[in-house]
Amino acid sequence: MGYNPDKPMEGRLTDLGPPHYEQFMPPVIKENKGKWLWHEIVQPGVLMHKSETGDEVYTVRVGSARLVTCQFIREVCDIADKHCDGYLRFTTRNNLEFMVDSKDKVQPLLDELASRGNRFPVGGTGAGVTNIVHTQGWIHCHTPATDASGPVKAVMDELFDYFTSMTLPAQVRIALACCLNMCGAVHASDIAILGIHRKPPMIDHNRITGVCELPLAIASCPLGAVKPAKAEIDGKEIKTVKVTVERCMFCGNCYTMCPAMPLADPEGDGIAILVGGKISNRISHPKFSKLVIPFLPNNTPRWPEVVEAIKKILEAYAKDAKKYERVGEWAERIGWESFFEKCDIPFTEKSIDDYRLAYDTWRTSTQFKFTSHIK
Amino acid sequence: MAKHETPLLDQLETGPWPSFVTDLKKQAETKPEVYDILGQLELSYKDRITHWKHGGIVGVFGYGGGIVGRYSDLPEKFPGVEHFHTIRVAQPASKYYSTANLRKLMDLWEKHGSAVTNFHGSTGDIILLGTRTENLEPFFWDLTHEMGQDLGGSGSNLRTPACCLGQSRCEWACYDTQEACYQLTLKYQDEIHRPAFPYKFKFKFSGCPNDCVAAIARSDISVIGTWRDEIRIDQAAVKEYIAGNYPANGGAHSGRDWGKFDIQKEVIDLCPTQCMWMEGGELKIDDKECTRCMHCINVMPRALRPGADQGASILVGAKAPILEGAQMSTLIIPFMKVSADNEYEELVEFIEKVWDWWMEVGKNRERVGETMQRVGLPTFIKVMEIEPIPQMIKEPRSNPYVFWSDEEVPGGFERDIDEFRRRHAA
User: Fold this and answer.
1) Domain 4Fe-4S ferredoxin-type spans what residues (chain B) (predicted)?
2) Which of residues 235-254 of A touch B (CB under 8 A)?
3) For the residues of B94-113, what is the DSSP string, one character each?
């Protein structure tokens, strides 16, 4: 028996919630929950956790494209069936984790993964670059200013060696959001790739009456740039909106509320790079990432300008930062003026805040460093 | 469905990182509509713009969340993606799976959908990417009846809560994040599936201040594990680190020669509160000064452990930039016991108090952090009936513009101008 469209509510089950997690935990995990004592990264991508019972679990971490198919998941299941008693997990950064309960099971698993070409790269641990968390982009979203899976593939191809090694001063978390909604923690990542629009919304007067609630569209603008207006359609006056262009900062919230205000554009859209955010409370407070490159074009399919910019920042950091220092902590220690110089990023007025609380970010001190910016 | 030329996407098949294009092409051999996904994406690569229409309200009976409607703007050209609705499926806590469960879910998705997925979406759900409206109810029926699983949240709802892996495989978790996440997810099924809020609302559960699930940056209520007694020290293990017998930071830096481990330089001097020192070959910590940043514990996991009196800090109001700019969540309750024994009573009471207030005063599309900012933290804590304490702020205000109230000033605000003028001529 399946769904019966004639009696949709008959026998209906709702609000079951997620299945209980415990049934999916490998036996060694289930038996040692709450008893773990310490862990070590045995080699890049391989973790060992030691329990007070003496048990050990070895975890092999593997990067994935996140945008994956049923076939791919079945292949992952084949590997887990063969090596991990039919269990596996995913991380919040879209890695796969295969767990085994003894050291001698690690190498056969690694060999299995290696035998499948480049489908299962092992890494993403410790002082390296782990998988990029990202959003949907052009594969599913209606508001993106860039693609997601494509730029991520291009960046990870270039940074691959940093995924499989642990040679950086600390971990570097990279994230991509394809618009300012930032589905994900892009706003607090070491390096953030952010899709942005640069043209104000157009107004589709022909459609606005049917698809928008005007007060909502007007209220949606955080800067009051959307205002009530009138327009003539087929000789009839209709109520619509207008946009005060000088006030628009291209957030796209009006389009989300009102489909008759599209703003995406091939030339207008692209990517901004933000740097220096983190989530962890370790040593310094969690911090937001800061805008250092206001715009790079959507040069499909490989976004070479974006890839190059990120590599340059990462390598300047790798060369200069101290052990344990996150990108943002490094930038704050050396000063942002030095950051721009060391990363060879041109400074523009676009990096000077002129939004809310902007004054908090202006320098009210005579303490600064002489860099090439002072002519 | 027709196979499309994809010269731009084909270029994403080279390079060492796994290619979603290769994966999609392979899947298209058995699910031809995937050719249309590739075809439309290729066109987006050419046009440098999305080809999805705005919105489209779809769902299953009785639910207002869990499915995101999406339609192609070129349905004639790409009939396989004419409808391309996303189904969010609630993920098991910490994203552990059995292959039996995953295989079954994949069977259902190949039957009812495009066979394209995200493992996982940023909020944490399993994302099943692309199906037609008429498939939604049959899929939901099979998901609930055959698998006992359910949809996650979308829209102005409680979003599917998420947690770090917690005590399941981490020595630092200060409470059982999985159980808290599971129990509260079950408790609030109605809030997850039926929109009643001004905007989205997220809980996230992290076991320690390392915050691996990024609760502090993206959840309206962040539950972050901590402790209030002393860091547990194994002095013998400290000596092993000093001797270089245990790798610092759990081996996270082994790829580069940073020189011999130096406890003074790498731990004691990097402590943000300078509360540690060596004395007679032993590591000493003035725990009263410790702010539990986790650095020393991270560096020496075999020597140091969080204290045994464990609970969580509760912070409120994180969000990404739209609308009022990005906000981290603000520390409201420094320490709360988080325990399944009393069904998370204290946390539940707090959550519901926040909701009652926010649902009343929050504006449309205003996250709770924005409402807090609009009314001010003093008002928020007054509404929450919480005493102000200095832990809530980084520093006291530097302006003197205090909103004194009528009752706080002797004689109140009502005064007589005529009586005033008798004493002070204009």
Assistant:
1) 281-309
2) 251-253
3) GGEEEHHHHHHHHHHHHHHS
